[in-house]
């Protein structure tokens, strides 16, 4: 099965600034791919090249097996785009915006009507379909542009910060729909600053810094790769001698913080088993026990941290 997106040495230069520097990666069909990076890293420029908004200076991007520069129409017929800022016409109603999108994609009026009704119903906008978009809240506008992007049933969906600034209800509605779309086979390319969102949704993430890809892997693998040492936080119902904990095989360090112990180890599974055995030998009950593996936030910060002067 071909990749949904195949990027090779993609480069974009603005004046003397190399915004995207020979970037290469691929996105498999049927996956949710997260594209992360700090402000100014090259995320938006890369996405704009992938969607045909701006040309690259060198390199190539195949979108659904079509070169986005040489075959832009064929490529764009297969994907939808949800920009961070609403691109709906505010002086038109939601229904009129969707009908216009249907005409642009050459969808028959009957099918456009069916799809529009289904999408507006799913996104809880059907009762407001005849209201002009200028009266919509940010959350409603975001749901509308998602409906517009999905009208032609694309195989690939590009999303730029789809839940930025939205209320909890709109956020959960959009995330639930994205999961359903992906389960049905839609490939999703997600640009986001929300690490928790990326961690929960994405099969793989690519992290870009200074125009270069600095990491590309599954979220759990990225988290594990940044630090060999894992932390275990635990507390007992009685005092435990620190030197006894520190002497356990596999324990790198054992430090007291308040009523809890912070234990570092390279092998959390083995050490947890030993800690349970140790507590029995000491006649102490374990009150709390938590493993504190690195988060995707930790991985992101570590991988995008600028060298200090």
Shape assignment: elongated
Radius of gyration from CA coordinates: 24 Å
Structural class: alpha/beta
The fraction of residues assigned to DSSP E strands is: 25-35%
Order of helical and strand elements: EEEHEEHEHHHEHEHEEHEHEEHEH
The CATH architecture of the largest domain would be 3-Layer(aba) Sandwich
How many runs of DSSP E, i.e. beta strands?
Answer: 14
Largest sheet: 6 strands, mixed
> How many distinct domains?
2
The residue-averaged pLDDT reads 90
- Please give the count of helices: 11
Q: If strands are numbered along the chain, what order do they take across the biggest sheet?
A: 6-7-8-3-9-10
General description of the model:
The structure is a single chain. By secondary structure, this protein is of the alpha/beta class. It folds into two domains: 5-224, P-loop containing nucleotide triphosphate hydrolases (Rossmann fold, 3-Layer(aba) Sandwich); 228-293, YebC, transcriptional regulation domain (Alpha-Beta Plaits). The protein contains eleven helices and 14 strands. Strands 6-7-8-3-9-10 form a six-stranded mixed sheet, with helices on both faces. Strands 2-1-4-5 form a four-stranded antiparallel sheet. The chain has a four-stranded antiparallel sheet with strand order 12-13-11-14. Helix 3 crosses helix 4 (109-122). The two termini are 47 Å apart. The mean pLDDT is 90.
């Amino acid at each position: 099965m071909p990749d949904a997106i195949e990027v090779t040495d993609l480069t974009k230069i603005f004046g003397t600034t190399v915004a995207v520097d020979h970037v290469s990666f691929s996105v498999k069909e049927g996956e949710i791919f997260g594209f992360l990076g700090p402000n100014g890293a090259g995320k938006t420029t890369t996405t704009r090249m992938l969607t045909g908004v701006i040309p690259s200076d060198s390199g190539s991007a195949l979108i659904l097996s079509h070169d986005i520069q040489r075959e832009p129409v064929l490529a764009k017929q297969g994907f939808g785009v949800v920009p961070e800022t609403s691109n709906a016409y505010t002086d038109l109603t939601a229904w009129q915006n969707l009908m216009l999108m249907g005409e642009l994609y050459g969808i028959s009026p009957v099918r456009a009507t069916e799809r529009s009704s289904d999408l507006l119903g799913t996104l809880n906008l059907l009762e407001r379909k005849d209201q002009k978009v200028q009266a919509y809240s940010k959350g409603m506008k975001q749901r509308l542009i998602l409906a517009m992007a999905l009208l032609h049933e694309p195989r690939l969906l590009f999303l730029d910060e789809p839940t930025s600034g939205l209320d909890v209800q709109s956020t959960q509605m959009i995330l639930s729909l994205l999961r359903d779309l992906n389960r049905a086979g839609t490939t999703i390319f997600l640009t986001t600053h929300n690490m928790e969102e990326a961690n929960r949704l994405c099969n793989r993430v690519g992290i870009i810094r200074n125009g270069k890809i600095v990491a590309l892997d599954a979220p759990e693998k990225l988290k594990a790769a940044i630090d060999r040492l894992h932390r275990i936080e635990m507390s007992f119902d009685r005092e435990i001698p620190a030197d006894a904990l520190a002497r356990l095989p596999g324990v790198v360090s054992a430090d007291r913080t308040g009523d809890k112990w912070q234990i570092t180890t390279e092998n959390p599974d083995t050490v947890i088993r030993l800690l349970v055995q140790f507590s029995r030998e000491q006649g102490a009950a374990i009150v709390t026990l938590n493993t504190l593996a690195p988060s995707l936030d930790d991985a992101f910060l570590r991988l995008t941290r600028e060298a200090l002067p």
